Fold each of these.
Amino acid sequence: MNKTWTASILAALLPFSIWAADGSGDVSKTGQETMAEVARIDGQDGAGEIVPIDLDAASEAYDIVLPQQPVHMTADSLVVRSADGYIQGRGNVDLQQGMDELHTSYIEGSTNNQLYHTPGPAVYLTSENALSGTGIIYNSKDGDASMDTIEGFIGPGTYIRGTGAEMVDGVGYVKHGLITTPHAVAKTPDYYITGDDIRIYPGEKFTAENTKLWFKHVCLLTYGHYEGRLDEEDNRNSWLFTLLPRPTYNSDDGFGVRGHANIPLNQSGDLAFNMRYALTSKNGFKPTAKVEKYTKFGTFAFGYGSEESSDNDDNIWATKWPELEYFMPRLYLGDTGIYIDGSASWGRWSEDGQETGSHRGFRAEITHRPLPLWKRANIRFYSGYRRDWYSVRDAERRDPYWGVVFSQSINDRLWTSLWYKKHNVSGFTPYRFDTIDDPRQKGFSVGYILTPRDTIIFSLAKNLDSGDISDRNYTWVRDLHSFTAIITYKDSNNDEDDEWDIYVIPKDFRF
């Protein structure tokens, strides 16, 4: 599209008519509103030719400034001095301006400079924040505030406590303070970060200087300048929190700890270093270190990996080096609730007792959000295809599979679920790591909430190929304030294969 057509279309879309009264380039007006000047030149045939308008001038001409929101104040006792605009409120003071609220027992200020001061305790609420503090100065002209002390939530997932605070243009600043997540909040939080010159950009990130990571009263790590992510939709949590060692135990690995850190490598956060670790008494140190690139076409990862089996219950570890992985973005099919996930990988695998060789493969799965059937009941179907190629023994495996899960809540404490899965495996894998246990299986689970902090779950699974009961699992779930402990006893047909699993999972971030 050429510039002449562009100018013509822009002129037609402006909210008021723009025209030239004659060939002299007059300023056009509609009523009392001055419009942007439209220049004209004469073409060779004498016809007027329109040239592009001054967009900056057009923007300034129609820049609308919204009126300032009025301040409403109520109190048990209210004094207003019209001579100098002084105002004072005592007892149940409520100040409101738009979405901002201030609640305290005493306030004073001026309607002239529009500053209001609460020397004592007060509650300060905005559309995104819920804060309390002392020494609050609220500026009703621009909605900014300063606080001697601060405590509360900036955004839904960031708890802050500290001194020397300011809120300017939606950005929080704290001179000295601590940050933690909602479930960890306590007089001494379960885990938290302390720092100086803390700046919080809600829904985006926070920065801090002289950073320290604490678990209760124990300092675990000292760090200088730190930048943590707050964009939960991208599932990129603050890596100092996820680095916290989580205790684990299972019969194959023994006692151990696990954690991970996803450290941004650039300002936008779309390039990151992903580090995971597992330290166990039986299998030692199992690290993973990968560089990840997030794009609109998916996530690419390259590096070294120590990975535990997820296709079976034998806790087999495989080393993958080098390993290149791709994870496609979830593809939604309109508003149907149906979506598709997929991934692909290439690398070299090694496993204890097995030859090292190359592996390549891909996987795709289609499923949907659970479909409601009747009160407290839903069902979900899934289907997928996986294919793998191995250099060891020139092996190849195909795995088309499908399954269904039905869930029913009986009441507020009791629920049950039933499932069926079928893997039509052809070919084989030379590794125990990705061997599928019980390709055809059905089972059920029953869960009951004993107390607000305790839940018990019983699960039973049947191997449809052999007809045997393959698993009886007894699970106790315990609420540990900011963590959840899951303790499972797995009772198999062979007493030698019976085992315990113990995991501690944080509530506010995922691993």
Note: Residues 1-43 have pLDDT under 50 and may be disordered.
Amino acid sequence: MAAMPMLRGRTKNIGKRSKKYLEEALYYKLFEDGSDEVSVRHQLNQFLRSRKRVYKWEVGDTIRKLRDRKRYYPALKLSEAMARRGMNMTVSDQAIHLDLIAKTHGIAAAENYFIDLPETSKNHLCYGALLNCYCKELMSEKAEALMEKMKELGLSLTSMSYNSLMTLYTKIGKPDKVLAVIQEMKASNIMPDSYTYNVWMRALAAVDDISGVERVMDEMKRDGRVAADCTTYSNLASIYVNAGLSVKAEKSLKELEKINSSRDLSVFQFLITLYGQTGNLLEVYRVWRSLRLAFPQTPNISYLNMIQVLVKLKDLPGAEKCFGEWESRCSTYDIRVANSLLGAYAKDGLLEKAAEIKERARRRGAKPNAKTWEIFLDHHIKNGDIKSAVDCVANAISIGRGDGSKWIPSMKTIRSLMGHFEQEKDVDGAEGFLEILKKAVDDIGAEVFESLIRTYASAGRTSPPLRHRLKMENVEVNEPCKKLLDVVCPE
């Protein structure tokens, strides 16, 4: 495997490389047909079959881009394939590989990989990667034990490991432990970074200590080693919004606008979202105009964000106008943008308008996704159109989610539909729905089977195989249903 160092963030000019190498940069090849999971996997398989060479920096850059887009399986497959081809893996590469294993195959597989690493690789990078995996999976005992092990080994600890631990404590609702970690960092002279300050402020906000949040902000400014950035002010604004302090939130958003010198698209979108949460429609439109000026070729994701905000602010005419503008300009008809308006129409009972948008999307080559069917599903249940609702469930399950995972109806939806069949004594409808449900749900559970038993009983029908089905599904129903089962399924 040819290797080449990356200097000052620049990459090698790939236009002059030999025919043994891939004709284009690897990440361009993988994203040639889009960034969805299926397309990326297909392009990756083509590249691996071709046996074309690539530079090591390309592999690292491509894995980073795949991780950014949450395409963990292709990233891991690429890393494994390149290792088999003889690419030298640095300790940093091994730490990334460990993280990909955890995301793709689970913590146990990542632990086994860590154990098998040579001792020379078990430094702060690989320990830190495993610690981060534990923290993401909310495995507090393992995370704390590993952190103590890292201290015992005298590994060079940075804010990154402490940040992982503090994020864990925030997620499991233990903000007091975050504050204890901050004190430990200060005592150990561990320099905080921007993320440290942000998670510290969120921990204080979690215990409604807004004045404490402001003290942290002041400390950050006084210290001077870490400059407040876009993330800092967006975090502060979000805290103020959640606390109902709209005036302070808008002041923070003004600061955020001032430092957005690079005209970052994500910052514009965050401003629109947060101004929307303060209820300031005028500011939403003002920032939207600025975004449009900065990005004349406005991406679909920005239209999606804007329409969602306008819908939440009950500005349906504005949302329709924005949608019409997007529809007339877009090169790729993104069903997610259509869904944002579909949802508003369905919620307001404007099903004809919703159906019209769905049809226009179809004509433009955009197929309904699971969310589309979910929108119509909610409307049909609300209006008692159970047949259409079941069709929506079937379609959503058949399509699945965009990331390749299964779409599973909520328990609320399942209860609503089973409750209807039970009330109407519709055994065939209930059984038909269960057949659809089994395509997405491995464990249907006792509650659903109890409803099915009651449906059979109220309809006065029997089902000789039902008791066997319960045994095969390893389901134990409650006592009232056991008595009904003696009638529905006599032994």
Note: The CA atoms of residues 299 and 449 lie 47 Å apart.
